[in-house]
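Write out the 3D structure for:
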Amino acid sequence: MTFFNPKEEVLDIQLTQYGRHLLSKGTMRPVYYAFFDEGVIYDLKHAGLEENRKDIESRIQEETPRLKTRHCFTGRDEFLFDGIGDIEDRKELGIYEKLNTLTDPIGTSDLNSTKLPYFSLNLLKGEISKTVDYMTGTIRTEKTGSISTTFTPYSHQTLKIPQINIDIEYKVAVTDPEDTSIKFETDSSLSTGKTYNNGMSVVVGPEEILLLIEEGNTTCDHENFDIEVFDLTGLTGSLGGEEIIPLSFVKPIKAVENNILLDPREARQKAGRLGPLEKDSSYVEYYFNVDVDNEISRNTICKSLSKIKKQGRTIYSPCGVDFDCPDLEDVITMDIYDSDAELDKC
């Protein structure tokens, strides 16, 4: 661990252990970046000291030493594997570091607001069964498959993750040839369509969760959320905690790239979809589908808003989302004192 020489060094780039793991598999595709300020103290009162406000800027920009890039957040002795399941151990260690290091990037605040950003979540369809103020992140108590058998406590910081539990219940019914009326909408992909010897068949109705998630006191842009899905296996991994497996989304086929219309075959090739796609358990779509923004049917949204209106309720939207539903504009409310001026597009 060394410091930058501000007179000679400006930028330093390193791959983390997880990044090296992805690079070794040929699946590393860096497309995002984030900024962090973990080494900066903005107010010396938190360090038990005092200073004039006019000195803060020069202290931070000119006098605060900068550590060079850290690319390993685990002791080197933890990479002494025992030859049993080493590939899985390396992958699990990389995922653990990814989830428990550099967890607080600098966000974007609205320049017209003096308040911190916050999340707004409304359920248009579904019910919250349980909430917890925060769920602590996994704290590791022993190192991974190392040759050493001596117990050594290892842990990263404890993360405060708000937890919201929503239960999904699918409707199942048996149809009679003489009475085919079903009181709920069925899904042909979930129902087998098989008719048994007695003429009966089983149909399944889907259950959906429809969420309106926004971030207030910040710029209201599109595609400003990242969705990650993990499989909580319930099994104890080599790190001593529950084994968590990240799932992948099926890469969508994009017909346009850099404002150029692609040939259908080329578009499928770029998405890795030339042959039949086998959705195994490593894909999110193997378990359920996740649709966002314009992928969601407007009729589905308007039906949910109509139900909310009949219940006499309204939904607050910090960004003033408009779903273009006839006679339902009054269901979505927003801050009437907020500026309605259009922001310049960069």
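The radius of gyration is 26 Å.
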